[in-house]
Protein 1
Amino acid sequence: MSDQTEAAVAPVQAFEPPYYVAVFTAVPTEDRSGYGETNARMEDLVKEVPGYLGADHAQTPGGLSITVGYFRDADALTQWRSNAEHRAAQERGRAEWYQSYTLHVAKVERSHGFKRA
């Protein structure tokens, strides 16, 4: 048995629509040098964007990674997309860390959640 304590797993809460989601799905390269540090920095940096609501992350056993970022409005999403440090990380991702990726941006019109008592 592992002596590591696993963090609680829970999805980001459902928000009152409308809001926006950015769904980033990626296939990583084998060399991930520097990725962890940059990813941690991006997670800290996006929290500074007014209107950022949170993110969900998942990875398949085969290595496909999925990040869903939630934003209150299009302006918040634009601010994140335009951030110079984020842009530099995107360029490095294309050059070093990703075999391929897709980005889908959508306006959420309906949202609800469930949590067992």
Protein 2
Amino acid sequence: MVRFDCRDSGAAARFDELTATAVRQIAENEPGTLIYATSAVDEEPLARVFYEVYRDRAAFETHENAEHVRRFHELKDPLLTATRVEFLTPGPGLQR
């Protein structure tokens, strides 16, 4: 899970454009990326959260090293004031 905080509304709009492009490229090129869900945060218009699930560690490494992902990072970083990455270990849950 990753949280991004954008600098201002203009940066948030550009971040959303970059995200839409990146998601398309991930869907087309990364079969090991099982979930790549992006969300805006209610009542925090400058915050975005990504929830990502990979088939395995190798799929995550493939994702991180993909040219389209490296380009996304390069273009989005100047738009942000903070990034918070958390690696999760699954616990009890429900999936339908």
